[in-house]
Design brief:
- The protein has 124 residues and is mostly helical.
- The protein contains 6 helices and no strands.
- Helix 2 packs antiparallel against helix 5 and helix 3 packs across helix 5.
- The radius of gyration is 17 Å and the shape is elongated.
Amino acid sequence: MLRYYYINKEWMVSSAARRIYRTAAALSLGLFVGLCAMQLSGGVPLDIPAANLLLFVGVAGAAVTVVAVEYFLFGFDRSPEWKKVCWFCIMVLPLIGPALYCFIVYSRAVVVKANTTDRIKIHP
């Protein structure tokens, strides 16, 4: 079966993409923790420019994470179907689910590790 991907497979599993997705997942988790902390302290201070900037960066990271891991889940993940369904249900949780998938599944995937390992050979 011929598959056509809108994003090149080599780019999707490259070391640069891995760094970008892991950074975006960390920003997503940071946004979640920050929103929980602000909720506990009484609200989101939107009149502070730094808060707006942090909120924007967190939302952008969450968006990148959601798109990237969904694309990887349906296009490149070689897990059994029941695991894919379980992870899809977990990814419905905003901010946390996609970030967990990125750190637990995407970062440890064989196809990603094969393309991101250092190819430097040290001879004794």
